[in-house]
Amino acid sequence: STKVFNLPPERLVVSVFEDDDEAFALWRDKIGVNPLRIKRMGADDNFWVSGPTGPCGPCSEIYYDFHPELGNEHIDLEDDTRFIEFYNLVFMQYNRDVDGNLTPLANKNIDTGMGLERMAKILQDVPNNYETDLIFPIVQTAAEIAGIDYANSDEKTKTSLKVIGDHIRAIVHMNADGIRASNVGRGYILRRLLRRVVRHGRSIGISDHFTTKVAETAIVLSESAYPNVRSKADSIKAELEREETQFLKTLERGEKLLADLITDVNAKGVTQINGADAFKLYGTYGFPLELTQEIAEEQGLTVDVEGYDRAKEEDIKNTPDTHGGIDLTVQGSLDKLAGTIQVTDFIGYHQHHSTAEVVALLLAGEVRDEADAGMNVQIVLDKSPFYAESGGQIGDRGYLSGDNLLVRIDDVKKESDFFVHFGSIERGSLRVGDTITAQIDTACRRRAQANHTATHLLQSALKQLVDPEISQAGSLVSFDRLRFDFNSPRPLTPDEVQQVEELVNTWITEAHSAEIEVMPIAQAKAKGAVAMFGEKYGDDVRVIDFPGVSMELCGGIHVNNTAEIGAFKIISEAGVAAGVRRIEAVAGNAILDYLNVRDKVVKELSDRFKAKPEEILDRISTMQTELKANQKQLETIKGELAIAKSEQLLTQAQTIGEFKIIIAELGDVDANALQTAAERLLNKLGEGAIVLASIPEPDKVSLVAAFSKGVNAKGLQAGKFIGNIAKICGGGGG
């Protein structure tokens, strides 16, 4: 380390097994390492085993210190921002039998190993393994294809590039070793890796095929040491091209549908995606569960895997032997209609009502010519004043009417280039070819307009007051509230939240007029217009400009003047994923709804506490103080009770060989009291072992083990023992 790789001795720290005095002395006396830079560590870190039985022994590890200037007083080798282990020396001196007994080996040896990429990281002085010359050229190729400067990218982009580099390298070697993509076993691992590569490529702006280009760099890097990757290069690239093409066909549709699912889940205030919906994504659109889980996790959500499995079993059970059946889902029928329906003419920017012709009608997923009162229907019109959900803004509500006809429209979604109006027929009958009057709910439209423009003002205020590098990571504009997700490495301070809110309200009262213009996208970008997250733009784009305040590319509905918003109020600011924050707010008339709910809560609290609104906080603080005092007193009593119970256990000790053992359950005492009881018992018991358990609350188990030094000398450690027991209970420990 110091003579071949020329690492400065003062940057090295070593660890030894906690009982290995010989290794400690050798490092200190023979090598000359400062004793403060020799750390004793437990079996989890410094005792190597080949398995439950077989050769094993203590080990000593060498760490590199990236910050020696921090001194020797508080060295914590678990701090991976300061230290990295790069060398390991295992003193292979024992054999462990089935009972856990250790016996010295006839032939002892030192098994040593060094981390290649870790040493490269140290020598090349780069922040992580991905930026060494062993892998960074692959990452750099992906960055060049995406038109990205890696060094100046945000952490999310860098992570995507690292995933691409790491996974492509793995795929190249797997494929060279004969593994082919499939839906089972190791083939499915390869397919999953490749799908992650493609998705991360799209997330950083790569829309075309790119995996074969990145793979070529991985092959060039590896071929001198692994000649088979070059000899198999053609088949590797053919596999990548085939899988990438196949996956791209399903990815765009699946991502859109999953985004809709996530929006629905968030709107309901739950944190789990329904298993049946996740299976529909896979069964109908080929979107794999693992990818659904990964995207959901990025949004702070989980997937109901058990529900997914049930839906999968039900699908297998109900699948007929023949495959000539017609897809009766709404989506399937819309796909079939897409080739025959023309683009819906959206006139809603300037008109709130118009006459229109019914060009398609669906009922329960089936294309119909006619539908009657009481039926839920999906309707396609030749033109429409209804805004279809897009860019984070939900679809309009309203009515379709005609002679003795009334259809309530609850939502409008965009499918391909036509709008689908979801509603129910309240009166009369509706037929394809009918001419009807389409009328949006103007009150709902005004609310959505206010919230949408407020979202633009919010982003501008965040950039101005918090960080100009803030960018949108998602949004929701509904009739009663708005939600804005943005990239930020830290939460906003309360003062920043207040300043942002005040600036938005200042812009509202200043009455800035909107200037809306359609222009070439290059011109819009040159003017400094901000793009909306997740949107795809054509050659010409719509620019919403409130001069001096905000300018964004947006196809949504907005107020003509900021004064129409009325007011803006931030409800919450919180984290939703690593590096992503979320602000929820209300604007316009929705503020009255919000204040009415808050006012009702305050009145109810005042009545319950018999206090004026301004006295409620003091009253709650007093109650919290009293509650904490009572809880502390209760914990003390529980601890005393546990100790009293434990004293009686001494008479129940069993003798096994030269040791005494107590195993008992102490009711509902908490973990701290359980530990105290175990320690007191072991002190009184002498050489032996204590294992105690309790159920402090329903569905929760606490376990404690305490072993004497004599038991330790037999090769048994309480930490490992209790960890294995805890796993049986679905937990962990040490």
UniProtKB/TrEMBL annotation:
Keyword Ligase recorded: yes
Swiss-Prot/TrEMBL GO biological process terms: alanyl-tRNA aminoacylation
Gene Ontology MF annotations: alanine-tRNA ligase activity; aminoacyl-tRNA deacylase activity; ATP binding; metal ion binding; tRNA binding
Alphabetic keyword roster: Aminoacyl-tRNA synthetase, ATP-binding, Coiled coil, Ligase, Metal-binding, Nucleotide-binding, Protein biosynthesis, RNA-binding, tRNA-binding, Zinc
UniProt entry tagged with the keyword tRNA-binding: yes
Coiled-coil segments on the chain, per record: 620-647
Residues of the Alanyl-transfer RNA synthetases family profile domain: 1-597
InterPro entries: aa-tRNA-synth_II/BPL/LPL (IPR045864), Ala-tRNA-lgiase_IIc (IPR002318), Ala-tRNA-ligase_IIc_anticod-bd (IPR018162), Ala-tRNA-synth_IIc_core (IPR018165), Ala-tRNA-synth_IIc_N (IPR018164), Ala-tRNA_ligase (IPR050058), Ala_tRNA_ligase_euk/bac (IPR023033), DHHA1_dom (IPR003156)
Top-level taxon: Bacteria
Cofactor(s) the record lists: Zn(2+)
E.C. number(s) listed in UniProt: 6.1.1.7
Pfam families on file: DHHA1, tRNA-synt_2c, tRNA_SAD
Catalytic activity: tRNA(Ala) + L-alanine + ATP = L-alanyl-tRNA(Ala) + AMP + diphosphate
Function: Catalyzes the attachment of alanine to tRNA(Ala) in a two-step reaction: alanine is first activated by ATP to form Ala-AMP and then transferred to the acceptor end of tRNA(Ala). Also edits incorrectly charged Ser-tRNA(Ala) and Gly-tRNA(Ala) via its editing domain.
Family recorded in the similarity comment: Belongs to the class-II aminoacyl-tRNA synthetase family.
Name the record gives this protein: Alanine--tRNA ligase
Species this chain originates from: Chamaesiphon polymorphus CCALA 037
Lineage, top ranks: Bacteria, Bacillati, Cyanobacteriota, Cyanophyceae, Gomontiellales
